[in-house]
Amino acid sequence: MKNLLLILVFLAMISCSNSMTDKEKQEYTDIGNEISQASFKALSEKLTAQMKMGGTAQAIPFCNIEAMPLTQEMSEKYRVNIKRTSNKLRNQKNKPTERELEIINNYHKLISEKKGINPIVEINNNNNRHFYAPIVVKANCLVCHGKVGEFVTVKTDSIIKSLYPNDKAIGYNEGDLRGIWSIEFKK
Ligand code: HEC
């Protein structure tokens, strides 16, 4: 009996250090939403400017060179690790971890069951708080991620293929799940 009590106390201690209160989860969800929206805005603004200047022929090489450093800049600003990832990659450098892929697959499952998809906050293997949230395809994404011949012109497709020969991030419709934000908070 005494041993059982000790085990229970011990288990409670472990679970305390590895779990978050609802309040804490909500706080990290709010910060995560804020950071992902700010990063999205920074990326979108630059991308839109490039599109205006030279269409996809200019915007795609811009993304190719600037998307990662820009995300890196935002990571430093907020002192977190920001990543965009997907099950259908364009840039191999955005490859998902096992956990990220699980989360993406689970979002897809929820969508197929017509259920809602919401941000997730949990403690990761590094014992850090980690935020995940869906990235959904909007109308203005289709010129580079939509169907070839419909929104993606043959010329755009050939630019994409020349930079990303293994591109899988094409053929999307508006409202589809494109991938996720994955933001790790450092200690
Ligand atoms: C001008 C073309 C262009 C437009 C418009 C565009 N993308 Fe991309 N996207 C790219 C390129 C090029 C990459 C690969 C470079 C990178 O960002 O790492 C990419 C990568 C991504 C990634 C990272 C995962 C991966 O496959 O490498 C996500 C997520 C993404 N795009 C979502 C979107 C969303 C959502 C929109 C609309 C709001 C959008 N993109 C609009 C060209 C575009």
**End-to-end span in angstroms?**
38 Å
Spatial order of the strands in the main sheet? 1-4-3-2
Oligomer: single chain
* Helical content band: 55-70%
Rg, Å, rounded: 20 Å
Number of helices: 5
Bound molecules: heme C
What value does the average pLDDT take?
Answer: 92
Name the shape in a single word.
elongated
Strand content: 5-15%
Largest sheet: 4 strands, antiparallel
Overall strand count: 4
List the secondary-structure elements in sequence, H or E: HHEHEEHHE
Low-confidence stretches: none
Number of domains: 1
Category by helix and strand content: alpha+beta
Helix-strand layout with pairing:
Blueprint: H1 2-18, H2 22-78, E1 80-85, H3 98-112, E2 120-123, E3 129-136, H4 142-145, H5 154-163, E4 177-185
Antiparallel strand pairs: 1-4, 2-3, 3-4
Helix pairs in contact: 2-5
The protein binds heme C.
Question: What labels would you give this structure?
Answer:
187 residues; alpha+beta; 4-stranded antiparallel β-sheet; 5 helices; elongated; binds heme C
